[in-house]
Amino acid sequence: MIREIFMPALSSTMTEGKIVSWEKQEGDKVEKGETVVVVESDKADMDVESFYEGYLASIVVAAGDVAAVGNAIALLAESEAEIEAAKQQAAATTAATPASSPATPEPAAAATSEAEVAVAAQNGASSETPKKRDRLVVSPRARKLAKELKVDLNTLEGTGPHGRIVAQDVEAATGKTPTAAAVPAPPVAPPAAPTPHIAAPAAAAPAPQPAAQAAVPGQAVPLNTLQQAVVRNMVASLQVPIYHVGYTITTDPLDQLYKQIKSKGVTMTGLLAKAVAVTLQKHPLLNASYADNAIQYRSSINVAVAVAMPDGGLITPVLRGADQMDIYSLSRAWKDLVNRARSKQLQPEEYNSGTFTLSNLGMFGVDRFDAILPPGQGAILAIGGASPQVVATENGLFGVKRQMQVNITCDHRIIYGADAAAFLRDLAQLIENESHSLTL
User: Per the record, which residues fall in region Disordered (predicted)?
Assistant: First the structure.
């Protein structure tokens, strides 16, 4: 029997995927549950496993090429005797529909392919597989590193999501100090997308510039997979009626608190995310979303923070249950998310489960901006940089205080101006007068 391996849907928004690498070559024996190919989805590289045992007879879509979700990317022969027949079938299919021209996905999805089932199981999603398999889940980088260092993956315990073996596990097995987390890159300004990693309102070292794609004068550079996902999300956002509300917040108390606890690993991103999460407890409407003429209230507060990717595009790692985490655990979780986001090792639920988003351009000296509302959310908060301002004090004198401008973008179908204003007022009250409570 000859079976097709299809391009799986690795996320709800994915319409096509790029082949990063083939872990098996034509003619190789493939075991059930073994990784065959690594696919780049919207925002991560994922291992795709075979649900059947057989031989990789023919690769239809080569590494570096793109295929639409549901299209065949390879043929799997049940026996060696069927390999030649599979190659002929692949040649006939390629002649009819060139792999370089991805077909438009059918409106109704076909039956779940073996690759999709395997990926769903890998991500912890429910699926009707015959039974749970005892198998390795290894990141592409870890697999490559294990080959270079000659480490037996079967001897390792994965520390990544769902027991996934990551590069740090391989390095630890050889006694090598795990590679430090990459320094988060700065943001990409709207309207291309929401923005990146939040920096401290207080003056800090100059932020690194985002890595630019190789530009050739006079030529059009195609968008990568992540950038195409951003385009789709932003176009979808244009269908939502939105409005913006701004507020000025004095950051001196928050800056002072940050200086006191940053030596313990606390980040300013963690402090701001925690402050927003605590405020959202009082304003569940700002954490909700519109759904079919209804307000969908969320069962948890998941704060997403936009982060620019070095090769273009951006991703929004999510601090799930941010209001329930202490500031130290939250900051450690954020550092881990950013590190794995840079190496495209986040699981889908770690970047698509946000209920409220933060975006920041303050590290560039931007004092205010408006962010674009992400699909499926009711609000996003844009944070500008803090700077000294001459202000009138309560006793009628002049003084200097550090202030930052924040602008919130809301879905007007469910959140009205008074709701947004009340949220910003309470956020300012927390930052200006109750910052110490963020460490409790």
Answer: 94-134
Closest of 128, 137, 411 to residue 285, by C-alpha: 411
Q: Is 412 a catalytic residue?
A: yes
Rounded to whole angstroms, the Cα distance separating 327 from 273 reads 9
Extract the tokens encoding 438: 């963020």
Query: Which residues sit opposite 46 in a β-bridge?
Result: 39
Site of tokens 């200097």: 400
Residue pLDDT, tens place only, 31-69: 887 888 888 766 667 778 888 888 888 888 888 888 888
Residues of the chain with CATH 4.10.320.10: 136-179
Catalytic residue, from 162, 283, 412, 436: name it: 412
CATH code linked to domain 2-132: 2.40.50.100
pTM (global) more than 0.90: no
> Among 119, 124, 143, 121, which residue's Cα sits nearest to residue 41?
119
Residue 183 CB coordination number (10 Å): 11
DSSP notation for 285-322: GGG-EE-SSSEE--SS--EEE-EE-TTSSEE--EETTG
Instruction: Return the CA Rg of the chain.
Output: 24
Hey, which residues does 315 pair with through a beta bridge? 307
Sequence-distant (≥ 6) Cβ neighbours of residue 385 within 8 angstroms? 199, 201, 361, 362, 363, 364, 365, 366, 367, 404
Angle at 207 (CA atoms; ends 203, 210), nearest 5 degrees: 155
- Residue with tokens 């913006």, as numbered in its chain: 244
Question: How do residues 215-265 score in pLDDT, each as one tens digit?
Answer: 678 888 888 777 887 788 788 778 899 999 999 999 999 999 999 999 999
Helix (H, G, I), strand (E, B) or coil at 253: helix
HSE value, Cβ hemisphere, 13 Å, CA-based, for 231 = 9
Q: Which residues of the chain have pLDDT under 50?
A: 98-134, 180-212
| CATH class of the region 225-439 | alpha beta
Q: Select 136-179's CATH number: 3.65.10.10, 4.10.320.10, 3.90.190.20, 1.10.555.10.
A: 4.10.320.10
Domain(s) labelled CATH 3.30.559.10 in the chain stretch across: 225-439
Alpha helices (H) along 238-385: 252-261, 268-282, 327-342
